[in-house]
Amino acid sequence: MAAPMLNLIQTQKQTLKISPAQIQLLNFLQLNTLELEQHIKNELEDNPILEEGPEDTNEEFDAFEEGGLNTKAEDRTQDYMDWDEFRDDDTPDYRTRINNFSDDDNEYTPMMVEVTTWRDELKEQFHLLALDERQQLLSDFVVDSLTDSGYLNYSAGAIADDVSFTSGIFVEEEEVQEIIQLLRKMDPPGLGAHDLQDCLLLQLERLQGPEVGIATKLIRNNFEDFAARNYEKMMKSNNLTADQLKAIVALIGTLNPQPVIGSQTDSLVIKDNIVPDYIVTVEGDLIDVELNNRRIPPLKVNKTYAKEVGGTRAANTYVNSKLNAANWLIEAIQQRENTMLKSMRAIVKLQEDYFKTGNVRLLKPMVLRDVAERISMDVSTISRVTSGKYAQTPFGVIHLKDLFTEGVLTQSGEEVSNRQIQLVLAELVSKEDKQHPFNDFQLAEMLADRGYPVARRTVAKYREQMDIPAASLRRIL
């Protein structure tokens, strides 16, 4: 093999060589503010060397010889000092920050409230009936077999087999079928349905009116045509006028496609609001970027504990390991803050017009590589500091990933963001005649007339991304 090729392979091996500390730091960059807060809490519980508070800068400690206590710990900075992406890091503000916030800014955990789930309420309905102990057991099993939406995807025979196997009693299929029939008569209407068609029919059984019978017949015999909005075929097969069908469609539209919806859930789940990782403020032509670090406490090494515990060789080994871990965490937070700030400032610079106005039409085409090249970092690093991250702006909280869009050349040669094309597409769909909605070919031609030459499949992709149904499903009478 030629010498130049050997040199190239050797260079590639050196380039691709990543230490475990570097991999750990890259994973650390991917944490959002809430995840970092939880990670720090876990470290504070597991590591007695680590504690909250500003770093002590005046007190000095001597390092012991090999096998002794090293309160300064080894310098882990060399694990990633050779990275180009970290060469211009500034001093992080967590080293100089003080806790000067008002007591009114404290956040308190909401109280846990005991709630009754819809499954519990359904079981209570069964317990009010004159059922024996065996039937009560079967009713509880059937209720627990329902999906989160209230559908029953199992047959009576399958449920009977499951009960027989788990409870050690032989259950006939007819016994389960009786319980299912009781379930289908309970509230809310539609419980125990096998599919959407069955769910709608169960709800229609409890309604009265001149259109109910025709609606039941239409759902039972023309459900596929109804789903596809093939109105002409339904009117012809059921001898209906356009006004009659319009009234029936309006009636069916009032039905619930899911028996269980809204806030009724299987378990009590407290969902945290989105906590932005960045705060972007705009004052005139000036745009400022800062990290939302109010949930992240300053950390320091408990050197007093380290000196008191040290003594034996085993104790010193333990303390040194915890000391190294504490110092690594503090330095990793510093690297994370610097990298995130540097990346976000580059994004704001590239999308300056958008952040000043909040107008999505001013969003410029931007990919991860554009930011990486601007600040001399790796694309994977930019991906980590933007994935799952949010920014508080004067016009609301935005997901950083939404800022990255591909560019499309207009007929005038100008490159625009595909988000701008999506806005124009949504505008065309909103103004269309709903009785004769535009198909993808027509939308592509209309976009081309406005200077955006895109293919039909691109229109279909944008439409799916914006949750806009196909033309046949947008059609109304």
Question: Helices, strands, pairings?
Answer:
Layout: H1 3-16, H2 20-29, H3 33-46, E1 50-52, H4 118-127, H5 133-144, H6 156-167, H7 173-183, H8 196-204, H9 210-221, H10 223-227, H11 231-238, H12 242-253, E2 278-283, E3 286-291, E4 299-301, H13 303-309, H14 313-350, H15 352-357, H16 368-375, H17 379-386, E5 390-393, E6 396-399, E7 407-409, E8 415-417, H18 418-430, H19 440-449, H20 456-465, H21 471-474
Parallel strand pairs: 2-5
Antiparallel strand pairs: 1-4, 2-3, 5-6, 7-8
Number of strands: 8
Please identify the structural class as seen in this structure: alpha+beta
Through-space gap between termini: 74 Å
Unreliable spans are 1-16, 58-98, 106-114, 262-272
Q: Into which percentage range does the β-strand content fall?
A: 5-15%
Q: What oligomeric assembly is this protein in?
A: single chain
Helix content: 40-55%
Please tell me how large the radius of gyration is.
32 Å
Number of H- or I-type helical stretches: 21
Q: How would you write the strand order of the largest sheet?
A: 3-2-5-6
Largest sheet: 4 strands, mixed
Query: Strand-and-helix sequence, N→C?
Result: HHHEHHHHHHHHHEEEHHHHHEEEEHHHH
- The average pLDDT score comes to 76
Shape: flat
GO biological process, one term: DNA-templated transcription initiation
Pfam family, one: Sigma54_CBD
Domain RNA polymerase sigma factor 54 DNA-binding: 317-475
Family: Belongs to the sigma-54 factor family.
Describe this protein's structure.
This protein has 477 residues and is α+β, with helices and mostly antiparallel strands. Among the domains are: 64 residues, Orthogonal Bundle (Arc Repressor Mutant, subunit A), CATH 1.10.10; 65 residues, no CATH class; 126 residues, no CATH class; 67 residues, Arc Repressor Mutant, subunit A (Orthogonal Bundle), CATH 1.10.10.60. It contains 21 helices and eight strands. The protein has a four-stranded mixed beta sheet. The protein has a two-stranded antiparallel ribbon with strand order 1-4. Strands 7-8 form a two-stranded antiparallel sheet. Strand 7 and strand 8 form a beta hairpin. Helix 6 crosses helix 7, helix 14 crosses helix 16 and helix 19 crosses helix 20. The N terminus is likely disordered.
